[in-house]
Amino acid sequence: MYKQLISGFLLGLCFISPVFAGSAADDMEVTAPWAREVPPGLTTSAGFLTLHNKGNKEHKLVAAESPATGMVELHTHINDNGVMRMRPVENIPVAPGGTTKLQPGGYHLMLMMLKKPLKSGDKMPITLEFEDGSRKEIQAEVLHFSMEKDMKHMKMGH
């Protein structure tokens, strides 16, 4: 009887161990989330952040949503014969122990169908979803965006 109890207990642990395993959202550290300020009348903006994978396997950001928008898409910029173009992507990978930056000119969140203008100083809730279905809620600060200032910032390696 005692052996059966122990055996059943150990078998049960095998089935529930995935519950105790870390999720992609648990492994992911999100820093410096921000969204670009847009004036009244514009209904599209962009969101940026840094993802750091503290885990030991690759994770992928596969979706995002916000109650402040009608839709959020994952995007990147590509060089199409000398012309920079935005394109949706299915996911944004983050290597084990690695960092992926979502920044102007690269990966970013396209914030579409804004329900109200984004003003500098506001906070915007965004939920990130990863390949295993886990989710992480963040607050992106809305910042004024200056292309000239930001391009200098990017060239300096920030």
UniProtKB/TrEMBL annotation:
Q: Which Pfam families match?
A: PCuAC (PF04314)
| Keywords per UniProt | Signal
PANTHER family with a match to the protein in the record: BLR7088 PROTEIN, COPPER CHAPERONE PCU(A)C
Its domain of life?
Bacteria
Native organism is Thiolapillus brandeum
UniProt-recorded name of the protein: Copper chaperone PCu(A)C
Question: What is the residue range of the signal peptide feature?
Answer: 1-21
Q: Mind telling me which Gene3D superfamilies this protein's record contains?
A: PCu(A)C copper chaperone
